[in-house]
Amino acid sequence: MTSTDVIISEKNLILETGLIAKQADGSVVARYGDTMVLATAVASRTTVEGKDFFPLTIDYIEKAYAAGKIPGGFLKREGRLSEKEVLTSRLIDRPIRPLFKKGFNSETQGIVSVLSYGDENIADILGITAISAALLISDIPFEDAVAAVRVGRLDGNIVINPGFDEMASLDLALVVAGTADAVTMVEGGGFEIPEDVLVAAIDRAHEEIKKIIGAQNLLREKVGKPKRAVAEVKENEALAASVKESCIAKMQESIRIPDKLKRQKTLDGILDETIKHLTTADPEVNVREIAKYFEHLEQDLVRNSILNEGIRADGRGTDEVRKIDCHLNMLPRAHGSALFVRGETQALVAVTLGTSSDEQRVDSLDGDTYKSFMLHYNFPPFSVGEVKPLRSPGRREIGHGALAERSIKAVLPGADEFPYTIRIVSDILESNGSSSMASVCGSTLALMDAGVPIKAPVAGIAMGLIKEGEKVVVLTDILGLEDHFGDMDFKVSGTTTGITAFQMDVKIKGVSREIMIGALEKARLGRLHILGKISEAIAAPRADLSKNAPRIFQMKIKAEKIKDVIGSGGKVIKGIIEQTGVKIDINDEGIVTIASNDEASLSKARAIVEGIVEDAQVGRIYTGKVKKIMDFGAFVEILPGTDGLLHISQISDKRVNKVTDELKEDDEVVVKVIEIDRAGKIKLSRKEAMKDAAKQTAT
């Protein structure tokens, strides 16, 4: 077994290889504290032909035994990937993918398995470092080491790899990945964080990343295998020249057609003409190669037009945001809804408000947790004019939904102020760039339409990058075409005050600090422009909730009263629900939540519960029911579950020989509380209650 190690944030990060999973092309166990992950990398020996993307698959798997748990559910074994595992798989994939040698096109699979789960809050981050190390020591042509750390801000100070106990106190939390030379990926969010704080955190993270990369390179020096040869891609220069000659004039015009569908239809027609022309001249020519060189030419023309002329496909300036339209209250039965339109991207967003019983239970290695806020993103095929079978949400949909959810979460009211479970659904109806950021904007509109008291409106914008040598252009509000042919996808969301979510991915080997700072400033200006458009549509949350939303009342009761509200076998609470039609939840802390769409029913249920938990007060008059007759008096229930003693001497202002001469069980009687002793025993007087009633009548 061979290992290297490095100290990160006062803990030892150890990379080991040579003991387990030796038949993989590369395998590394990474350990940090009590957290251990195994990363394996295997690449097929054959090349995949005909794919226009690198066939890489990354899977992150959490083993229940890693946390000393047995999986929940019927099967009692790990099943399909959870949402967290999907998001982490994407997190690992994104900084790894750009670093394989160009021309390598074999099926490649990386698997990160969590073997031990400590409280370091690092298994996902450790996976990026571990898979990089496994690829680095393998014969797979992976060109440069990449590593990652989690960085946060706690009490104004930047911390590296904060633990679970610190996460709730952070106002900024990021995952930063990079090579020794540059940052390649950033993902995370915060509570309205200024741009300069974000840059400082990324800078600090990169310092630690360089140390981890040093440990990886040392491991490669010790046990690294020679990299397998990658056949040089031989370009058919003659065919490329023929394609260019045949269609460049028409293509130069068509790439500047503003309408996406019209532009694509025109380009498809030019490609068909080009194929027909070239195959007529040479029937043996490879049609797939013609299509490849056609796309290469399109990419070159789009990039050169932006770099050299400052002209984008839809005619906008590089800093210009597309036309924005905001439509509110689109769906009459939803609790809040909006249609956000930016150029050719549309997001229909609906808000649904529920009670605590609607919270999502999440079973993970961290234990069972509950989510009271969910944002789900859907991307149907018709949104881009395609025909595809409908499946369950894919990795992209889960990832985009998580990014939008993070963007909005920072401005939601606390449970004590707004005790609702909130679900947002964003259905993308049209897409031409940045549908996740459109979901953020649409969510803000729909929440305010629903009357949810958010702290501030949030908007999101996607930035792009075109870089050729020293020439650099940062693009505001990118189109799908610019995303496809560009070098960076840089998403920023936030309020007028600061950033709530941030995600950066690059297709090149990293971006400089200067480019990042410039992009953040342009994103800030674009975000402020969009927030201005949102405020024109709706300046603040509506004063009242939708008439379709449930009304919720919360109260805290004493722990010893919980059993009184629930009753034996749930008899009391079921009776209240049957009588009023409301929903009632009681937690172990004594928080009673009553929800109903009908105000009258809610008020009735509230009065019943308040009556059950009310404490008797000296001097107060109650109408009670005689529960038990004794020789010395009667026990009267003045509140649900609360009895007091009405002594025979207090039944009347006249002498009473026998209690049964005046009272019988189930009689209703008006009594006054005259004393509550230290033991909580209540003494009642009917005589005093009658005197008080007589005085009021006389007045």
From TrEMBL:
Residues 619-687 form the S1 motif domain. Keywords: Cytoplasm, Magnesium, Metal-binding, Nucleotidyltransferase, RNA-binding, Transferase. It is found in: Cytoplasm. Its cofactor is Mg(2+). It catalyses: RNA(n+1) + phosphate = RNA(n) + a ribonucleoside 5'-diphosphate. It comes from the Bacteria. Its main location: cytoplasm. Pfam families: KH_1, PNPase, RNase_PH, RNase_PH_C, S1. It is an enzyme of class 2 (transferase). The keyword Nucleus does not apply. CDD domains: KH-I_PNPase, RNase_PH_PNPase_1, RNase_PH_PNPase_2, S1_PNPase. PROSITE patterns: KH_TYPE_1, S1. SMART domains: KH, S1. HAMAP family: PNPase. PANTHER family: POLYRIBONUCLEOTIDE NUCLEOTIDYLTRANSFERASE, POLYRIBONUCLEOTIDE NUCLEOTIDYLTRANSFERASE 1, MITOCHONDRIAL. Involved in mRNA degradation. Catalyzes the phosphorolysis of single-stranded polyribonucleotides processively in the 3'- to 5'-direction. This is Polyribonucleotide nucleotidyltransferase. It comes from Candidatus Magnetominusculus xianensis. The lineage of its organism: Bacteria, Pseudomonadati, Nitrospirota, Nitrospiria, Nitrospirales. The gene is pnp.
